[in-house]
Write a structure and sequence with these properties.
The chain contains seven helices and eight strands, in the order αααββααβββαβββα. By secondary structure, it is of the alpha+beta class. The chain folds into two domains: about 60 residues, Orthogonal Bundle (Arc Repressor Mutant, subunit A), CATH 1.10.10; about 140 residues, Beta-Lactamase (2-Layer Sandwich). The strands form two sheets. Strands 5-4-3-8-7-6 form a six-stranded antiparallel sheet. A two-stranded antiparallel sheet has the order 1-2.
Length: about 210
């Protein structure tokens, strides 16, 4: 550290970098050990970063990168959408259902990119910016299942009627994108999701993850 630098800011940035390098978050004790500072300092750093939505803590107390990191640059969400759109467009056209990329924002799921099919007579209207609780709807449930290690092969979640009556959803989590929790899915007006949709959603989630790395 030189006289011209801020030790507190340096530690805060190191916290963000440490959290960005883990998919499962870190506890205060783990951060304290990695930074070589006491727990009180870490609590203060996390509280400050939380106020700016740069860090969030789950119910178990593990700290993770917050979606506020994305808001630091106005062009980040457009860049995320741009990276995801080819896979979403292919998914929507192939399945004939509305496809979406959803990211975690606090305790909510936030749709950041949506593509509707062009050839269907009707489909579910779903808009970027739509929010819903993480424990409702396929998009949020896929993210929660990935957190808990509750997804089995082929790695997708199915729901029916949780966000809109008569609508079914399928979603698969993004895997291997450091610091970002999200899912790719489709929503359709159907009593049940056709068998081929789940694996196709998994493939699309893999494509989006590759594009965001």
């Amino acid at each position: 550290m030189t006289a011209e630098t801020s030790q507190t800011l340096d530690r805060g940035l190191r916290v963000l970098k440490l959290l960005a390098d883990t998919d499962h978050g870190l506890t205060v004790t783990e951060l304290s050990n990695k930074l070589g500072v006491n727990r009180t300092v870490v609590y203060r750093l996390l509280a400050t970063l939380e106020q700016h939505a740069l860090v969030r803590r789950d119910l178990g107390g593990r700290a993770r990168v917050g979606l506020g990191v994305l808001r630091l640059g106005r062009q980040v969400h457009p860049l995320v959408r741009e990276a995801a759109l080819p896979a979403l467009r292919s998914l929507a056209e192939d399945i004939g259902a509305t496809a979406h990329l959803t990211l975690v924002d606090g305790a909510e799921a936030l749709a950041v990119a949506v593509v509707e099919p062009t050839w269907t007579d009707y489909h579910v209207a779903y808009r970027a910016g739509f929010r819903h609780p993480l424990d409702r709807g396929a998009a949020g449930r896929a993210i929660l299942a990935a957190r808990q290690g509750g997804l089995t092969e082929p790695g997708f979640t199915l729901t029916h009627g949780e966000l809109e009556a008569g609508a079914s959803g399928a979603a698969a989590p993004l895997v291997g994108v450091t610091g970002v929790e999200g899912s790719v899915g489709v929503v359709m007006l159907a009593d049940a999701v056709p068998e081929r949709v789940g694996p196709r959603v998994v493939d699309a989630a893999r494509e989006v993850a590759d594009a965001l790395r």
